[in-house]
């Protein structure tokens, strides 16, 4: 009897060890790419499906308290073609992202009551089901705050949580029919204000990933230039944002690291400066200047046409300055992206996401992320 029990224990141990190794192998950091469909038809054949885990299609609008394909003629084509990419890479997941900066105006009304919330989530889940997609990303900019001249209410704080509860219930019901796993993610602002206007500790219970928009911390409309997507703080300003400060705030709010996704900017932000002091960094700005996507920056701007690259070692962030034109540009490059990937691994975060795929058509930055997270391109 003892020998039988011993043999059974050995067998269970072997099975558990194999399961643990398999689980560890599958816990590769996610790479979530936002793909903009608001411009029209997407060249889906140019998307590198082997260097992505998730595609978030941006954006689905809201009309009459329902999820709505604002550009139906092109959205329907884009969604079908994106879904077909899963035939090439069966592990790729495709989600619709609802909202965004311009299309968050109707969120507050759509989730005002239990009935309106249920109608909204049902319409959103119906789009996922119709196009054989894998989930929904909510990009509400922002609950309880004005955003882009949005309707907003103090009650948005609780209604935001209720939105995710309804989504999870709807997907659980759909899963019983399709036997598929559906993902719920949300793009969140990096400020303490955002956390104060939401219940992230509750929201995380219903979501798979919290995508921290750790970019746009500054832009050309600010009176002082700054980093817009820095990993750490390097200014003496105690209110300066950084990816690290944002992520630590979400951890403190009750979001586990395994659900937090760091944001990476595939584009730059520019300032026209008043002087050449300090190569433009943390100086008085006059007006916005062109930034541009990273492929454009790398091929046409960095160390070209009078633009010199500088590195802020405290912030782990690059910047450009053109002394003659007095133009300052903040952006992410290969080095800063590598630092963010190290941060993900060091803090056991879920992975990285970026805005926006076609801002770096040559994949200079995507390849850095994929290499760091051991994705093998084809």
Key attributes of the depicted protein:
single chain, 378 residues, alpha/beta, TIM Barrel, eight-stranded parallel β-barrel, five-stranded antiparallel β-sheet, 14 strands, globular
Description:
The chain is α/β, with parallel strands linked by helices and 378 residues long. It has one domain: TIM Barrel, CATH 3.20.20. Helices cover 36% and strands 23% of the residues. It contains eleven helices and 14 strands. An eight-stranded parallel barrel has the order 1-2-4-5-6-7-8-14, surrounded by five helices. Strands 10-9-13-12-11 form a five-stranded antiparallel sheet, with helices on one face.
Shape: globular
CATH-level-2 architecture: Alpha-Beta Barrel
Please give the radius of gyration in angstroms. Answer: 22 Å
CATH class: Alpha Beta
So how many helices? 11
Which SSEs are present, and which pair or pack?
Blueprint: H1 2-26, E1 30-36, E2 54-63, E3 66-68, H2 72-88, E4 93-99, H3 107-110, H4 114-130, E5 135-139, H5 156-178, E6 183-189, H6 192-196, H7 200-203, E7 209-213, H8 243-252, E8 260-265, E9 267-273, E10 285-293, H9 294-301, E11 307-312, E12 317-322, E13 327-330, H10 334-346, E14 351-355, H11 364-372
Parallel strand pairs: 1-2, 1-14, 2-4, 4-5, 5-6, 6-7, 7-8, 8-14
Antiparallel strand pairs: 2-3, 9-10, 9-13, 11-12, 12-13
């Amino acid at each position: 009897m003892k020998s039988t029990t011993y043999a059974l224990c050995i067998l269970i141990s072997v099975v558990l060890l194999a399961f643990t190794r398999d689980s560890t192998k599958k816990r590769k950091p996610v790479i979530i790419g936002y793909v903009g469909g608001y411009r029209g038809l997407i060249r889906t054949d140019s998307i590198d499906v082997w260097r992505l885990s998730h595609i978030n299609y941006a954006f689905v609008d809201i009309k009459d308290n329902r999820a709505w394909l604002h550009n139906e003629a092109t959205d329907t084509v884009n969604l079908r073609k994106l879904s077909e990419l899963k035939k090439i890479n069966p592990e790729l997941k495709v989600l619709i992202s609802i909202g965004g900066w311009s299309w968050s105006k109707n969120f507050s009304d759509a989730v005002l009551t239990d009935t309106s919330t249920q109608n909204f989530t049902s319409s959103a889940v119906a789009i996922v089901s119709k196009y054989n997609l894998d989930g929904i990303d909510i990009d509400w900019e922002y609950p309880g705050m004005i955003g882009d001249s949005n309707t907003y209410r103090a009650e948005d704080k609780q209604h935001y949580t209720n939105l995710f509860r309804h989504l999870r219930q709807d997907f659980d019901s759909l899963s019983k029919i399709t036997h598929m796993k559906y993902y719920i993610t949300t793009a969140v602002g990096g400020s303490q204000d955002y956390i104060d206007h939401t219940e992230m500790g509750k929201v995380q219970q219903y979501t798979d990933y919290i995508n921290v928009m750790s970019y746009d911390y500054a832009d050309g409309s600010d009176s002082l230039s700054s980093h817009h997507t820095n990993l750490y703080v390097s200014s003496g300003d105690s209110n300066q944002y950084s990816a690290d400060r944002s992520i630590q705030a979400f951890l403190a709010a009750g979001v586990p690291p395994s659900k937090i996704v760091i944001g990476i900017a595939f584009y730059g932000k520019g300032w026209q400066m008043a002087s050449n002091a300090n190569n433009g960094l943390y100086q008085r700005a006059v007006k916005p200047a062109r930034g541009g996507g990273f492929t454009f920056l790398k091929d046409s701007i960095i160390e070209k046409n009078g633009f010199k690259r500088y590195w802020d070692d405290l912030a782990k962030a690059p910047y450009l300055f053109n002394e003659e034109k007095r133009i300052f540009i903040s952006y992410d490059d290969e080095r800063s992206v590598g630092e963010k990937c190290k941060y993900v691994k060091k803090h056991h975060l879920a992975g990285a996401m970026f805005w926006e795929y076609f801002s770096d058509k040559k994949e200079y930055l995507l390849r850095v992320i994929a290499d760091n997270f051991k994705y093998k391109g084809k």
